[in-house]
């Protein structure tokens, strides 16, 4: 049932194309749902080409070849290359006999590995001393955030229920009013038709009496 301009006490007039909580068009016309679904499916069909107003695709990271290559790798769904673990090893010079440059490279690698292990030891010591407290604080913050989000979700659910309840009550009330007005309109139209038919009958009777009067006057 389509609604017109309905003025309520809460605000100005509003226009309603349908009253889903009140209409029963689908029950009265079983084929209406199939027609609506076909129309929706036709609207959802993908277009053959882009609209002329759609801008061309944007090329990302044109000034950064590394990021551009990484984006291409992600788009092609290729796995990440494996980490090079050779630099975490301590190989000696491979040539025999080893030169001074070979020993110097091996020594530099040993210094790098020693510094790496020292940094790892420092980080582990910091984690052992302060990590538990940091995690407690982090967990407390996460719990507070989770409680806030749960409360927000419950408030939104309650608000949704109230909105749907008010909408249903309003549409039911308006639908009943529209049904009453439609019934009254039908009755008035029927009365008008009856009056018109009575007028036609009276005009015919008047014409008949007029002709009878003329016939009697001519005798």
TrEMBL record:
A GO term from the CC aspect: precatalytic spliceosome
GO biological process: mRNA processing; RNA splicing
Keywords tagged on the record: mRNA processing, mRNA splicing, Nucleus, Spliceosome
Chief location bin: nucleus
Pfam families cross-referenced by the UniProt entry: BCAS2 (PF05700)
Family recorded in the similarity comment: Belongs to the SPF27 family.
Family matches, as PANTHER family: BCAS2 PROTEIN, PRE-MRNA-SPLICING FACTOR SPF27
Protein name as annotated: Breast carcinoma amplified sequence 2
Species this chain originates from: Hermanssonia centrifuga
């Amino acid at each position: 049932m389509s609604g017109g301009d309905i003025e309520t006490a809460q605000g100005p007039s509003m226009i309603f194309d349908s009253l889903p909580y009140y209409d029963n068009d689908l029950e009265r016309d079983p084929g209406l749902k199939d027609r609506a679904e076909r129309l929706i499916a036709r609207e959802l069909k993908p277009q053959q080409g882009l609209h002329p107003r759609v801008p061309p695709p944007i090329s990302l990271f044109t000034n950064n070849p590394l990021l551009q290559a990484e984006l291409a790798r992600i788009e092609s769904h290729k796995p990440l290359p494996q980490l090079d673990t050779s630099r975490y090893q301590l190989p000696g010079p491979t040539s025999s006999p080893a030169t001074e440059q070979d020993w110097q490279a091996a020594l530099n690698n040993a210094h790098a590995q020693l510094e790496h292990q020292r940094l790892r030891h420092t980080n582990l010591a910091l984690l052992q001393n302060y990590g538990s407290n940091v995690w407690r604080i982090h967990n407390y913050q996460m719990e507070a955030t989770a409680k806030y989000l749960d409360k927000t979700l419950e408030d939104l659910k309650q608000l949704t229920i109230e909105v749907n309840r008010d909408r249903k009550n309003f549409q039911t009330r308006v639908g009943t009013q529209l049904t009453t007005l439609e019934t009254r309109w039908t009755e008035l139209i029927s009365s008008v038709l009856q009056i018109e038919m009575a007028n036609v009958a009276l005009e015919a009777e008047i014409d008949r009496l007029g002709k009878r009067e003329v016939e009697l006057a001519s005798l």
